[in-house]
Amino acid sequence: MTPAPYQSGVVGIGARALHTTRRALIDDLGEAGEARLQEIGYAAGEEVYHSFCEWLRQAAGVSDPGELDADALGEVLSGFFNLLGWGSLSLERVGRSGLEITSENWAEADPANQAEFPTCYFTTGMLASFLTCLAGGNAFAIMELECRSLGDTGCRFLAGSPETLEAVYEALSEERDYRTILEA
Question: What kind of fold does domain 15-183 have according to CATH?
Answer without folding.
Answer: Muramoyl-pentapeptide Carboxypeptidase; domain 2 (3.30.1380)
